[in-house]
């Protein structure tokens, strides 16, 4: 089973507005409202891929009830910890005329100590060797990087994928005593970790950083240029086809879904990278966040080129 952890879920609202301008009045040409947050985007794509999944994290208030109802509607099993605070809402404004996407993200509720303890008690009950855990997104108020330390300690017999950024990513890479099985930062997040010196490094030198030594899978997203990756002791460069993106929001989450799917099915290293990148590409071709057209998966996989470096 794949368990997705979304510490800070959200109702994702995507507006489509032609020629969006600041300090102006606009009519919305199209709107999508979905159960979101990075981990739930992962969940939705895994569901489409046919994986056995369970979604967990924290939910509260009317927004939390909406998300639960949406997950039930699309058939995603879930067990979330109830919070006193209201689950957040995030907004994306997509202007296809100018090719821009603007995102507005609420911070989320404050998680109490008792709510945090309840979550970890539940997580301990899921510590079954062979499970795969994918923890994605920001932490709500009340939680800090110690959340990851405790999670990795509880799940030491499982393969854990963590997708986070900023201070939390820095903690995982440099300070955490126990490491996740996989991370998937983008190149800007890597530059934030190591500074501008990475600009003079080769792709392989970048992946050979001492800080990555004990993380079996490191995939560094290069956006439209694909990715570079370390999978165990091999190094790869992955090129993706050029596309006209409709809504890129959620593509990184979809890539995590492809990665988790591949690990759960023991796919080869090359196939793992192809699935991860293909899911990201397919999400960008959809208006809905955290969605792929499964009918286009095989043809997209064929267009992705992976070379060892």
How does this model look, in words?
Helix 2 links the parallel strand 4 and strand 5. The chain is 35% helix and 26% strand. Helix 1 crosses helix 8 (251-264) and helix 8 runs antiparallel to helix 9. The chain has 309 residues and is α/β, with parallel strands linked by helices. It has helices spanning 38-49, 61-73, 113-125, 146-154, 166-175, 187-194, 203-207, 251-264, 269-284, 297-303, and strands spanning 2-6, 10-16, 30-36, 53-60, 77-83, 88-95, 100-105, 132-136, 159-163, 182-183, 217-221, 227-231, 234-239, 305-308. The protein is globular. The chain has a single domain, classed as Ribokinase (UDP-N-acetylmuramoyl-L-alanine:D-glutamate ligase, 3-Layer(aba) Sandwich). Pathway: Carbohydrate metabolism; D-tagatose 6-phosphate degradation; D-glyceraldehyde 3-phosphate and glycerone phosphate from D-tagatose 6-phosphate: step 1/2. Pfam families: PfkB. It comes from Helcococcus kunzii ATCC 51366.
Based on helices, strands and strand pairing, what is the structural class? alpha/beta
Number of helical stretches of at least 4 residues: 10
Strands, total number: 14
Portion of residues within helices: 25-40%
The overall pLDDT average reads: 94
Enumerate the spans where pLDDT stays under 50 for 5 or more consecutive residues.
none
Give the biggest beta sheet: 10 strands, mixed
Topology-level CATH name: UDP-N-acetylmuramoyl-L-alanine:D-glutamate ligase
Strand arrangement, largest sheet? Answer: 5-4-1-8-9-10-11-12-13-14
Number of domains: 1
Topology order in helix (H) and strand (E) letters:
EEEHEHEEEHEHEHEHHEEEHHHE
Q: Identify the CATH class.
A: Alpha Beta
How big is the Rg? 19 Å
Overall shape: it is globular
CATH superfamily: Ribokinase
**Portion in strands:** 25-35%
Beginning-to-end CA distance, first to last residue? 32 Å
If classified by CATH, what would the architecture be?
A: 3-Layer(aba) Sandwich
Family: Belongs to the carbohydrate kinase PfkB family. LacC subfamily.
Catalytic activity: D-tagatofuranose 6-phosphate + ATP = D-tagatofuranose 1,6-bisphosphate + ADP + H(+)
GO biological process, one term: D-tagatose 6-phosphate catabolic process
Organism: Helcococcus kunzii ATCC 51366
């Amino acid at each position: 089973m794949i368990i997705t952890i979304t510490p800070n879920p959200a109702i994702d609202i995507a507006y489509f507005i032609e020629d969006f301008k600041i300090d102006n009045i606009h009519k919305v040409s199209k709107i999508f409202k979905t159960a979101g947050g990075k981990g739930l985007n992962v969940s939705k794509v895994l569901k489409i891929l046919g994986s056995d999944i369970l979604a967990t994290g924290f939910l509260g208030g009317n927004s939390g009830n909406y998300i639960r109802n949406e997950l039930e509607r699309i058939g995603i099993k879930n067990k979330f910890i109830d919070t006193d605070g209201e689950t957040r809402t995030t907004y994306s404004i997509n202007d296809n005329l100018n090719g821009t996407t603007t995102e507005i993200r609420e911070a989320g509720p404050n998680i109490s100590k008792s709510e945090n303890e309840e979550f970890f008690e539940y997580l301990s009950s899921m510590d079954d060797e062979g499970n795969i855990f994918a923890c994605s997104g920001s932490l709500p108020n009340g939680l800090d990087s110690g959340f990851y330390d405790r999670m990795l300690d509880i799940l030491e017999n499982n393969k854990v994928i963590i997708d986070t950024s900023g201070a939390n990513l820095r903690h995982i890479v440099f300070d955490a005593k126990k490491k996740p099985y996989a991370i998937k930062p983008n190149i800007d997040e890597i530059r934030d970790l190591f500074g501008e010196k990475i600009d003079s490094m080769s792709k392989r030198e970048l992946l050979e950083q001492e800080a990555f030594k004990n993380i079996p899978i490191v995939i560094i997203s290069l956006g439209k240029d694909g990715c570079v990756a370390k999978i165990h002791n091999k190094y790869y460069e992955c090129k993706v086809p050029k596309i006209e993106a409709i809504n890129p929001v959620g593509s990184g989450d979809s890539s995590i879904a492809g990665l988790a799917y591949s690990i759960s099915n023991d796919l080869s290293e090359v196939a793992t990278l192809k699935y991860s990148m293909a899911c990201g590409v397919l999400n960008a071709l959809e208006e809905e966040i955290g969605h792929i057209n499964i009918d286009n998966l095989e043809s997209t996989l064929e267009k992705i080129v992976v070379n060892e470096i």
